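Archive transcription. Copying these from loose printouts into the bound notebook so they stop getting lost. Printout 1 of 2:
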Amino acid sequence: MASEGVRTWSWWRLLPWSIAAFLLLLPAVAMQYSDEVVWGPADFLIIGTLLAMVCGAIELAARTTTNLFYRAGVCLAVVTTFLLFWINAAVGMIGDEGNPANLMYAGVLFVALAGALLGRFRPAGMARAFFAAAGAHGLVALIALIAGLGASEPPGPVGILILNGFFVALWLLAGGLFFQAARDA
């Protein structure tokens, strides 16, 4: 029975690393079939480093706590952070990737990180940090919509609303998982 638990646990710990390897292989394969995907060694190095950081954070959470809500909250928060960074760097969330309005999302990441640090990575502090990140993300979307930032570029106002709403929901869900972890503690 104990060996089955170890095997399952090893499989679950291997899953994020396998997904990261798959994500890193996607552009390599796409480059073989399309001229639209052009990645250089620096692109693979940057994304590989980011994916290693994501998997390392998930691994650290798995090793430091047995609370499943906390682990799930870390996984969701880290993946959300990675997606926000990647989408912004690749295509931009407000207009294209070169639109300076996209720099406002650095403030969202700052709120999340500063809140986590101030909360000492404890569940209740993490919940507050990610609820605040959701609010900051919603504020960025509101500013973009009111100021008309990126309104004439894809994804347009409706796309900005939908994409940012998705991220606000992810931040809220992460905060909710940490809130539940705090209740269980």
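Printout 2 of 2:
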Amino acid sequence: MIQPASAPRDDDRDVARVTQDIAGRLRQRGVAVHDDETPEEIVRLLEAVEAFERAVESRGGDLMVDEPPDRSAEQPDDPAFLLPSRAADESASAYLERLSAATEMVRRRPRNP
């Protein structure tokens, strides 16, 4: 049976579900996700956050110490290891550029003992 053009396809529902799941994972890490962002932008955000986290770990950072879950007043061991905050009005592409630069800075740092 062919579905009417106005009915959501299973693929569309799957993409929406996965996109919401990824957006939730980003929000848990303290990254704002905007309603108008495409699934591709949201995936790129997650990939960039994960790349930053891998860079921190490769330099001896401890995400549990350097990334307080509620971004409380506690100071991280190394401020360079703190995931950059995203401004409320910052586009995904602008945040991705800043996050990429922060990741590169972390990668260039000497490894912590």
